[in-house]
Each structure stands twice: as C-alpha cells, then as structure tokens.
Amino acid sequence: MANKPEVWLRGPLEGIPPLLQPVAHALLQASEEVNELMSSLPEILLWVTPAGLASPGFHIQHMTGVLDRLFTYARGEVLTEHQLTKLSQEGKMPEIEYSITTLTETFNRQVNDAITQLSQTDELTLTEKRGVGRAQVPSTVVGLYTHAAEHIMRHVGQLLVTTRILQG
C-alpha cells in the first residue's frame, strides 16, 4: 500500500454520486488501512488493551457497528434488536473468540455494503432530515454519511496507535 496513492488521489469512484465521493474515498481508505494494520498483528494481541487504550478487536467491532448503525439511520430506519445487542457487546471479549480474519472480513463487508448504499443514494435526498438514536436527535442523510466517514477514520488512527504500542 505504501506505493499506492491514497484512495482519494486515485480519481472518482464509478457509480458513486459526486457529492458522496469523499465519504466513499474515506471508507475505502479505512478498509485498506485496517487490513494492512491487522495483517501483521499477532492473534494473541487482538483483545489486549495497552496503557488503557481500547483493544484492536474493539476498534474493528466498533467501526463495523458504527457503519451499520449510521447507514441504517441514513435510510430512515430504526435499529433492530440485533443491532442493539451487537452494540452492547462492542469491546467485550466474545464467548466464541473472533479471529483477526473474521473481524476484518466483517468490517470489509460492512464497508462494501456502505459503498453500495452510497451508490444508490439520490443526491437530492442528502439534506433530508433523519433521526438518530432512541431520542431521534436531528441530523440529515449527508450528516450521517459524513459523520460515519469521520468516525471511522478517527478509529483507524487510534487503531494505528494501539497496534504500534502492542508491537513495540
């Protein structure tokens, strides 16, 4: 990946509306960086929390969940019981331990689902109001998409710090 330019420098993504290109670029960049970071992490370090930081496993679970939840709200839907259960389990060691491969594949699928949703979004709907959470805090479709991209990239940065500490 060091030889490739960042996703946003590779040009427009086919099928993504122009106003949503930055969101799609950020999500694809996050996916590439997560895969690269996790490719060299020993499995035993997946749930370690160095110096009080969140574990790599938490970051990947959380990023996957954030995309799922925020893109659900962008569609004008409420979260399902399954999504709420997954939210309550983020950061906890699962009973059946996930592997790095399982977590990264799940994250990559969620990114792909998000890219598909972006490709199907009519730009005329971007300013439509959407409620967030049980309190239905007001946002918009574009606000949810933008926050999802920003939130994911922030966690990629935190994942980078955590994995560097863990690997010395």
Automatic annotation (TrEMBL):
It comes from the Bacteria. SUPFAM superfamilies: DinB/YfiT-like putative metalloenzymes. Residues 27-159 form the DinB-like domain. Signal peptide: none annotated. Pfam families: DinB_2 (PF12867). This is DinB family protein. It comes from Mucilaginibacter antarcticus.
